[in-house]
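JOB MANIFEST
job_type = single_chain_structure
chain_count = 1
residues = 454
[input]
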Amino acid sequence: MKKDSLSGRFRRAALRELWLTFAPALLLVAAAFAVTFYFVQPAPPMKLVLAVAPDEGGFKYYARRYQEFLARHGVTLELRTTKGSAENLALLNSDTPSADVAFVQSGAPGIDQASHVLSLGSVAYVPLWVFYRGEPVEDLRGLQGRRIAVGPEESGTRALALTLLKANGADASPATELLPYERAEAIEQLKAGQVDAVFLVSPAESPPLQKLAAIPGVRLLDFARAEAYVRRYPYLSKLVLPRGVFDLARDVPAQDVTLVAPTANLVVTDRLHPALKYLLLRAASEVHGGSGLLDRAGEFPSPREAGLVLGSEARRYYESGVPLLQRHLPFWAANLVDRLWVMLVPFIAVVVPLGKAVPAFLLWRVRSRIFKWYARLKEIEIQLEENPGRPILEGMLARLDEAEREVNRIPMPIAYAENLYFFREHIDVVRRRITRRLTDAHSDSAPPAVSAMS
């Protein structure tokens, strides 16, 4: 029973020794990981809200393509219908944004105040088409005094139309009537002769647009001063619609037409997760990277002037392409690895050095408790060199026995028990020397044997 009790106390003491050594190291490792985890990006949400105006710039078609791409990568894209680019910017720029991403027309009202909105780049030309009835007019000045459908309130079409009409003084006449018709209604009103002109912002591939260009009596305005417009409004580009590009057989249009075009821009709230920004840029490259009637393959997406700050992820994407992990791994796996590699910092900076330092420290603690007994052992050896008498030698043996008992009580992890046995071997060496001295002293002091012949 006593033996079991001593064994139990020894194990508890050894375990306490291990805890006293390893606990500070574990706390340091935990603190390092906690600090690192604070800087690790949270996992990206798997649902996004896209603000889109159905009648503006062909954005609804693009939105469906983005839905298909994101769905393949496990992200749901929910569409939120808005009135136009101005509302899209307001939704993203709010302190509590109710949308994550949107299509915005360059030059849209409020774009210069959208401090919490970042651009991921321009994704397409959306030219301004001005269709009208009557005699040919030279530029927008000829529309003064007419009934003009300029698009609904808050739309990018209306904002651009009003800017250009005002610059030409075409809105100054009291007879000029600006009508807020939606796209479909504006086209029907022009066909019926109820309006004199319509402003449309749309991709050249839009079927309603191509049908409208083929209607007899409906003319497409040629921006003869397009160069002046793009100089004054940097968010516009000068484009040429080639003769016959809509219908070669019917030669529609019948001549080259010069257009001015804003761009459709993919914009996000600055709170959006970086991984999702890269995923949206990949979607943009797939959806908009092909050639069209007015743009070349690979021309979009691009970091064109849009009046917004270009996001840092977008800059890196245009300079270096898709991040390495996303090139070779599924989106969820690339994001997981990208988040967790930061955890290697505490492992390399703390765990690896501690893996070498802690065992060395534990060995030092164990040896330091034995080394003080080595000092006593050395003291006994020095006294032994002075040829002490028998009483002193017997006292040395008693001190050796005491040292051995005390050392045996030191808590000692099994892995370091060899240090204890080395000390006991050294005690035995000194004990044997003392024992020999005692034996020699006894022989010298014994009386000589009496001869039998005496």
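[summary]
The first strand starts at residue 47 and ends at 52.
The radius of gyration is 44 Å.
exit_status = 0
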